[in-house]
Specification:
about 240 residues, 17 helices, elongated, actin filament binding, NEBU/NEBL, repeat
Length: about 240
């Protein structure tokens, strides 16, 4: 009587379309890394198609030809030696124009007449312009304008001297940083710094354990009074050896 039940207990068969199996398959697909990167891997296998007549390729070739020194000087190299028919360089219009432009741009030739006429000017010593220049030079002279501090005699208890010392102390870097001398040599822990907090936040954002919920963490409660559970209990009581 119990031989069939004993044989059936050893062979367990679960229908593939039960809710538990479907839920397990869905959770396995969610946590599968292979399925997660499947689209990316397939896109990488396809590669890319870059034809020779593509617009970026043509643009790069045109830019290379424009920037090429050889292409830039190609016309000049072809025209070398083609200037035939002028008996001398002075009769060549282009060479004559270049020589004229060089002469106009030459600073020595531009100032030659001025340098020759500088030694031919005679100015009286008591001329008005000379006297005015001397007075202007005296006014703008740095020697007469500047009075050095050691030439002055000041009492140490004068108000302006005391005020100047206070201003120097306020502007002094040593006095400005004197309240931070007690921090010199003190160790500092990086815990709580901006970089450490930023790294922790980035780690939390990239943490796969916090990003996905594991299937074993999902709460599942079986219904005890469902028809299949009641039928199983009844069959078990009927087939029980006891």
């Amino acid at each position: 009587y119990t031989e069939a039940w004993d044989a059936d207990k050893k062979s367990i068969h679960v229908m593939p379309d039960t809710p538990d199996i479907l839920l397990a398959k869905a959770n396995a697909a969610n946590v599968s890394h292979k399925l997660y990167v499947k689209a990316w891997e397939e896109a990488k296998k396809k590669g890319y198609d870059m034809r020779a007549d593509a617009i970026p390729i043509k643009t790069a070739k045109a830019s290379r030809d424009i920037a090429s020194d050889y292409k830039y000087k190609e016309t000049h190299e072809k025209e070398k030696g083609h200037y035939i028919g002028c008996p001398s360089a002075k009769e060549d219009p282009k060479l004559a124009w270049a020589a004229r432009a060089m002469a106009l741009q030459n600073d020595r030739l531009y100032k030659k007449a001025y340098n020759d006429s500088k030694t031919q000017i005679h100015i009286p010593v008591d001329a008005m312009s000379v006297q005015a220049a001397k007075e202007c030079q005296t006014l703008v002279s740095d020697i007469d304008y500047r009075q050095y501090l050691h030439q002055w005699t000041c009492l140490p208890d004068q108000n302006d001297v005391i005020h100047a010392r206070q201003a120097y102390d306020l502007q002094s870097d040593n006095v400005y940083k004197s309240d931070l001398e007690w921090l010199r040599g003190i160790g500092w822990l990086t815990e709580g710094s901006v970089d450490v907090v930023k790294a922790k936040k980035a780690q939390e954002l990239l943490n796969d354990r916090l990003y996905r919920t594991r299937p074993e963490q999902l709460k599942f409660t079986s219904i005890t009074d469902s028809p299949d559970v009641v039928l199983a209990k009844t069959n078990a009581m009927q087939l029980s050896d006891v």
